[in-house]
Amino acid sequence: MNRLRSTLFLILVIACFSKTKAQTIDHWESLVLASNTWKWIEPTGTIASWETSGFNDVSWSSGPGGMGYADGDDGTTIPATISVYMRRTFTVVDTSLIEYAVFNADYDDGFVAYLNGVEIARSFMGLGGSATTWNQAADGNHEAALYTGGSPDYFTLDKATLLSMLVNGTNVLAIEVHNVDAFSSDLTGNFYLNVGVSTSTVTYSPVPSWFVEPMVFTDSDLPIIVLDTRGQTILDDPRIVIDMGIIYNGPGVRNYMSDPFNEYNGEINIELRGSSSAGFPKQSYSLETQDTNDVALDVSIFGMPSENDWVLYPPYTDKSLLQNFMTYELGRAQGHWAPRCRYVELVVNGDYRGIYIFMEKIKRDGDRVDIAKLTPTDISGDDVTGGYILKIDKFTGGGDAFTSNFESYAGAWQDIYFQYHDPKLSEMVVQQTNYIQSYVDDFETALNGPTFSDAVTGYPNYIEPISFIDYFIMDEVARNVDGYRLSTFFYKAKDSDGGKLHMGPLWDFNIAWGNADYCNGGLQTGWAYQFNSVCGGDSYQIPFWWEKLLTDTTFTNQLKCRWEFLRNHSLNTDTLMNMIDSLVLMLDESQVRNYQRWPILGTYVWPNNYVGATYADEVAYFKFWLTGRLTWLDANMPGNCTATGIAEQTQTSFFTFPNPATDVMYVRGDVSQTNMPVLIRDVSGKIVYSSPFAVGMSLDVHSLAAGVYYVSLGGSTRKIVISR
Length: 724
Fold this sequence. Notes:
Blueprint: H1 3-6, E1 15-16, E2 27-32, E3 37-41, E4 61-64, E5 67-69, E6 76-77, E7 83-92, E8 98-108, E9 110-115, E10 118-123, E11 153-158, H2 159-163, E12 169-178, E13 187-197, E14 215-216, E15 219-220, E16 224-228, E17 240-247, E18 255-256, E19 264-273, E20 284-290, E21 309-313, H3 323-333, E22 341-348, E23 351-360, E24 388-392, E25 401-403, E26 417-422, H4 430-448, H5 465-477, E27 488-492, E28 501-503, H6 531-534, H7 545-549, H8 553-567, H9 573-586, H10 590-597, H11 615-636, H12 646-651, E29 655-657, E30 664-668, E31 677-681, E32 687-692, E33 697-700, E34 707-713, E35 716-722
Parallel strand pairs: 1-14, 5-6, 16-22
Antiparallel strand pairs: 2-13, 3-4, 3-7, 5-13, 7-12, 8-11, 8-13, 9-10, 9-12, 15-18, 16-17, 17-19, 19-20, 20-21, 21-23, 22-23, 24-26, 24-27, 25-26, 27-28, 29-30, 30-33, 31-32, 31-34, 34-35
Helix pairs in contact: 5-8, 9-11
């Protein structure tokens, strides 16, 4: 893990954590340019010590860089090849005046770079420091960027690292460029070594016009996560094993890059994640904490319950930086599980990546989606009835989903796919897939039938209405253009644990909250659930569920009561504005760095409905949009909250699970009920347990005898069973 402090294999870097830079740079110059004259050779066998400064390259060919063929960006065109070796000698007058260096690489497909024989960077060529052969293929396809108007990759070298390699006088930059195979249609190698100098005297060449001066990142008021990829490139697939360190000195204590890793220090496996967001330069990651034997390792990070699956999510198109974070906070305030989150600043191989959200991943777990674990032996009776997590999301076909038997609307040309999320299809047996498919089909059949609202034969027999109501409210408050049709999760516990379909958890609201310029996503008015009629040509449609549920007066009356209750509590306008202000204050310092790293303020990023010139503009728009949206919903939320019993049921709603319980019972309610007493009474009415309510609380009930009990919170009571 010490390599996380000393690694030189710094990928895609335009920032650094070294304090040695310390504001002493006067300007930047180039020691080596791609257009300089280079010595080069197409190797046909092993060439010993070719990357060192003492190697004699007099017999090699020479010509201007870059070296390559077929892309129109080659200073010297070479024959098609599996690899080319390049050397450029250059002179340094005074190393003490050089404070910092950036090595830039524009390449197709992989490379390893050496400064005076010491490796300083590599990409798509295995692990950093590993040996290569002359005929080794690159790990994958990587396209050059400069000739299409893009930017090269950045790799940083701080002063201490530079002084360990660079010498006064003659130095050599040596680079091996490799193709993905010997028959590849193109190859590119354009390389630059740029330095920050502490004097105003100009000694070397001007930097290229595309060069961006690195930004200093040394400390933060947020936790800092540092990733070292060991010279590898993080891909969409497969996952790679890398090192992760987290610096967090506690609430109100500043965190420095020079501090020890004290929140986590170990291996993880990691991959890219996301669909439409995958094209953004600020990338999102899924990761798994693991031990040195590559076995998943449950750990508690930032006080979150121990687990091994996590997400590093980057707010990018959401320039307020608030949307997903707020969504999950509000979901928990409703009394449901939603991913716990922590704002952090991320550094990947020395590259400062800006503000990220470290968060829990949706999965079955006692502290996440708390349903029973389904094993291959659970094939009958109560065992086969749960638990299942399904989702509606982008789908390109294959066998990891089943299809709804009902159209999203009359004449719809596309199917609705229900995807297996946890467990995955590969982990299930036919009895389980048959069961959950039949259950969902029975629900849809009942909902589509003539007695759809009947408590026994209709949809209420299959779903937990409060979860559907709360899910509807959040999608509509945010006017989520992806709502109900993408990143939409629902799950089913065992019949003995309640057993009905539960909507949620909430996930992926980064183009909600007025942040979409298509399909009415930016409007403060109208319904998100009517997406099918607004954007009927879109390939991902909303199931018919919501249109049908909203024709049931019992459902809409409950919806109206729940809406009125939440508007006086977690969705109160003042409460929401205060939440925004609190989060903005938390990000006051870090958002400045974030937008220095990603200068997108004042620039359209798909699918922005509004483009503010400043961060304050983005926050002001978020507040303006949300206030108008709430006003419209107040005037248009369907239902009548005067029906006997409905108001009390909805406003004091809470639920417990599992039921029956053995050792631990979870109580889920609304944040407004915090510190109300949770009481457990036996059948005689005697109080046998009392505790103040807290969102997400668990009760230790192992000392209670088996039998029937009654749990009360805020005037509402639920019957439970303790079993042994």
